[in-house]
Design a protein that fits this description.
heterodimer, A: mainly alpha, 11 helices, 75% helix, elongated, B: 219 residues, mainly alpha, rod-shaped
Chain lengths: 206, 219
């Protein structure tokens, strides 16, 4: 397709205009079934929303599924969705967190049905993956955490939410968030002790 | 990135300090720092504003405090190594989500480019979630069209095929009638086949093909 003079300027201008549109305005347009508004919301929020799902579920494919499900809920709700000045992200965050937790619990039910033996998952899996990338080890260590600790850490550390925002998102008290974060970090430190000590000894902390 | 820690940072930090002090007694300010990094990590910008200055000063002047912060930062860095979706995966995912919403109807506009192809009707959320390739394409007559010559495709196919078949039927009927009157049916039919208009027979064949294709498509 030939690029006409001034087209790139026009595209940049359109992009800037898109960025300036508030989530509230876009959600209102989504309620009317406007494709462009929905596409814009998806592109704006798919990264952070899928990151929560990925860290909660530890699996690309499942993370993509729940991310898609969360956005489709937004599409279906349309006019039924009320958001405030903080935009649609808190709502999406809550939906994707709940969907991820549902999946984790469903997995657990399947495990019980299959009478899977109780094993120290993190330690065994870390051992089995000797030589694999640190990323995978961290992933496994995260998955070994209880789901609420994992969610609190995901929202606080990866999403960059404040303690108060995490509390609001999880519908728990600030003190409960504090406890979850502390226990989560202790759990990770224990599961990743070797790598962590190596990093500290090598001066990689700064 | 400056973050708020909560409504009552002093109270919550006191709670943390009490909890941490049950294990090993350090100086109170060191205990406070340990509790702080255990919850908020080693990134000073994530620390509660009410504690930040004092704790930063402590870490800058005390080797033990500096080591505690360094260890917390090491854990932060390890966490940062956790896998995330790549930009390509994110782009594909965004497109799939838009396509899936499209397939549910109530769609106006052309963000995904094929809004005109929507047939309507809703899929269940379950099938949408697991349909990685996006929604199924709408049922069209494409299956017939691709097996037919261009001259018979789309809107022109119906009238031409009908006229051709009608003409061929008339011609064959007349010639067979004539041959029956001469008594030698087999040889006259062969004559018809040999001497007949090729285009008529071609259209007959094409008509059959299109009918087969139509039957296949309906099945």
């Amino acid at each position: 397709m030939a690029v006409k003079p001034g087209q790139s300027t026009q595209a940049a201008s359109d992009s800037a205009a898109d960025d300036a549109l508030s989530d509230i305005a876009l959600v209102a347009r989504v309620a009317l079934g406007e494709a462009d508004a929905f596409a814009l919301l998806v592109k704006r929020h798919v990264g952070p929303v899928s990151a929560i799902a990925r860290r909660m579920l530890g699996d690309d494919s499942e993370a993509e599924d729940v991310t898609q499900e969360a956005f489709l809920k937004l599409w279906r709700l349309g006019a039924g969705l009320a958001i405030d000045g903080s935009g649609v992200r808190p709502w999406l965050r809550r939906v994707v967190s709940n969907l991820a937790i549902d999946r984790i619990r469903a997995r657990r039910r399947t495990d019980v049905t299959d009478e899977a033996p109780e094993i120290p998952v993190a330690a065994e899996q870390l051992k089995a993956l000797e030589g694999d990338a640190v990323a995978e080890r961290v992933n496994l260590a995260l998955q070994a955490l209880p789901e609420r600790q994992r969610l609190a850490l995901t929202l606080f550390h990866f999403e960059g939410l404040s303690q108060r925002e995490v509390a609001a998102s999880m519908d728990i008290s600030d003190e409960a968030v504090e406890s979850l974060l502390a226990r989560g970090r202790r759990g990770l430190k224990a599961a990743l002790a070797d790598e962590w000590r190596e990093l500290v000894a090598g001066g990689g902390a700064d | 990135m400056a973050q708020e820690a909560g409504p009552s940072p002093q109270a919550s930090t006191d709670t943390m300090a009490k909890r941490t002090m049950t294990t090993r007694q350090d100086r109170p300010e060191i205990e406070l720092l340990k509790a702080l990094v255990e919850v908020h990590g080693g990134d000073r910008e994530r620390w509660p504003a009410s504690e930040r200055l004092a704790m930063e000063r402590l870490a800058a002047t005390d080797a033990h405090a500096a080591s505690i912060v360094a260890q917390a930062r090491a854990l932060d860095r390890m966490l940062d190594a956790a896998p995330a979706l790549s930009s390509d995966q994110l782009s594909d995912l965004a497109n799939r989500i838009i396509a899936a919403a499209q397939s549910e109807g109530r769609w106006q506009g052309g963000a995904a480019g094929n809004a005109d192809a929507i047939v309507g009707g809703a899929q269940s959320s379950r099938s949408l979630v697991h349909d990685r390739a996006g929604p199924l394409p709408p049922r069209t007559t494409q299956g017939i069209g691709r097996r037919m010559p261009a001259m018979l495709s789309a809107g022109r196919r119906g009238p031409l095929a009908s006229v051709g078949m009608l003409a061929a039927s008339l011609l064959v009927g007349v010639l067979i009638g004539l041959s029956l009157s001469s008594g030698d049916v087999v040889s006259e039919a062969q004559v018809v086949a040999d001497a007949g208009d090729e285009s008529v027979f071609q259209q007959l064949v094409m008509g059959e093909e299109s009918l087969d294709a139509l039957v296949e498509d309906l099945l």
